Please model this.
Amino acid sequence: MRLLVEPAKVGVLVFVAAILQVSIFSTLQILGGAPDVVLLTLVGIALLRGSIYGACAGFFAGLLIDTANLGTLGVTSLLLTIAGYWIGRYGETTGRDRAHAPFVSVAVATILVQFGALFLHYMLGDPVSARVVLLDALPAKVGLNLLLTLPVYALTRWVLGLGTAPEGATEVQLLG
Amino acid sequence: MAGSLVLLSVVLITIYFREPVGGGLHGVQSGGATVLRPFEVGAERVARPFRDAYGWFAGVLHAKSENGRLRKEVDAYSALATRNANAVQQNAQLKSLLKYVSAPQFPKNFDPVATDVISRPPAELAQQVGIAAGSSSGIRINDPVVNADGLVGKVTQVASHGAEVTLLTDPDLMATAVDLRTQATGLVGNGQGRGTLILDRVSKSDDVKAGDLIVTQGWHYKELSSIFPAGIPVGVVTSASVNDTDLYWQVQVSPRVHFGSSLQSVLVLVPKSRPH
Model:
């Protein structure tokens, strides 16, 4: 049963976050940036459920966002799959049981995803300005994401814990 | 597992990028967008009261300073309206005498489709928004999009119940425009600053100055005509300068449309008679 419930809860979380992102949070331009609740939710899922869940949730979230925005399919999926996997691995290894892990993950993932998005859009020939993406929007986006990290992480933890005992990421034993 | 998903993402990008607009993946995306549309509309409606409340408080803060400026503008425009009414009447009489064949006129030759803005990608990466009406409402690619303030952009992708609108602030979008005072013509497009426009290709022999209203020019030549009909307000000239080395005026334009989060609904201008 748990095999079905867990992916369903992750799917619902990602779906709601993606819908809220494209229709509400993307319009909240504060100091030049907008919060990214999909990335925040992904951080929560990946840290609490591990790298495989992180990668799958990232791929699904990216597909939803690209579909809703009628953007190039696969671009956001690629970025969020890598981000979800990396955050999951961090949660399984050095970030395990660390209180600062969500904040570190959000800050690093926000910066890397923004750089990655700039690179991909540039490679696809889209008109993007590095100054706007990296100087105008990025600092505000990092700040806003960090502000929202705690509530979104707590909400994600609560939803994932519904009906089942909370479980940490699978521990990885380092050899050698 | 993660490697497979990365590979799948790259494959999706490659296919989507290489296939034509009517291709299979575009069709799947269009269907997906239609499925997601009710959820987006629902979320947008839930958020609207909060957004309106924020807009109300922000508006009150700016209302006092804006009031004095608007009163002066109303006085000036009242006088202008009287003169314009006479000119319109005279223009109609002269046109009927000449049997003048004019280009499509805004707004009388268009059926406006009013629709909500339901999605937008991160503003720093893309200057497009998603709207809740699509081909089922008669909307096609390249239909002009306006709101009460003026020109917003044009339709660049269409699904059956949704469409993508590229905003005028996109670097790839330009429109022929004219200075309403002097009839100096140029191309209006994305400016240097965020949310600003420039009026490019204005000949040095023309006259442009700060405060001039810029509207779309509209043109037609045989079977061809511009995407944007004439007379849609674009913005107001904030600065105009020229030097010896430049071939054209350097004109900065402040758009009348607020392209930020306050852009909540738009009108898509669907031509009453569409050329086949």
